[in-house]
Amino acid sequence: MARFDRFLAIDWSGAKGPVQKGIALALAHADGGPPVLVDPGRGWSREDVLALLREDLPAGTLVGLDLGIALPHADCGAYFPRRDLLLPDAPSLWALIDDICARDPNLGAQSFVDHPDFAPYFRNGSVTGPHFGCDGANHGRGRFRVTEHAQAAMGCKPYSNFNLVGAAQVGKSSLTGMRMLHRLRDRLPVWPIDPLPASGSVVVEIYTSLAAMDAGRSPSRAKMRTFEALNDALEALGSPGVGGDGSIDDHASDALLTAAWLRTAAEDPSRWCPEGLESTIARTEGWTFGAR
Hints:
- The protein has about 290 residues and is α/β, with parallel strands linked by helices.
- It has two domains: about 5-70 and about 185-270; about 90-180, no CATH class.
- It has helices at about 45-55, 90-100, 110-115, 145-155, 170-185, 210-215, 225-235, 250-265, 280-285; strands spanning about 5-10, 25-30, 35, 60-65, 125, 125-130, 200-205.
- The strands form two sheets. Strands 3-2-1-4-7 form a five-stranded mixed sheet. Strands 5-6 form a two-stranded antiparallel sheet.
């Protein structure tokens, strides 16, 4: 029996500015058909996405957010070791970030990464903070959550949410996303930080490369920049293709493919109980839906 009626994939962005070119939304329906882009006609802002999820989200929607929903915790026993700061779970982390960044426009998170108490934990520009690793034990790419180790074991190349530099950095998008999750706290459960409810809409973290891999593409070929490549991947997932020819923006193709992938993956019970996900990890670090 289908648990969800709709599947909304959101390719997120931590870029500065009132509108982010890197944000793309795509929707797939449980009753079939090709995924479709949700286009406001002027580009998306992070506040636009927040308003949609708070006010206009249809009931029974599985929402996939392409960002890290928490920072590493299990490796050091704390988000910010060496600081006397009680943050028992991810929602308390979200609240801290949103409070410190209350004056940052566009759900930005610059005040947090510049804060003297927290800047030492990040790699930012040419500066690598002294606490970027955990007690000196780090592979140069920063601290990982348990789910990111699972991604790596699947052949992916995850990046630390404490990394704020480089084309593949995920730190800024994750921190801005955590501000949004804090503001959705009274509206939408976030799996697995919250238990999966029997009905209603739910947010999960996604990694679009996992959708591409399930469609037969390798991690190094996860990005699809032509309609032909996208439609081949959609066909591999059992989804009808989308109209179009020639090139396509890879943010749009990521969202379209992942919406179709969520439609299939959500009905697999094993996706909701991956190995390595126990209660403390669920509460503090969360998990990437589809990581095994």
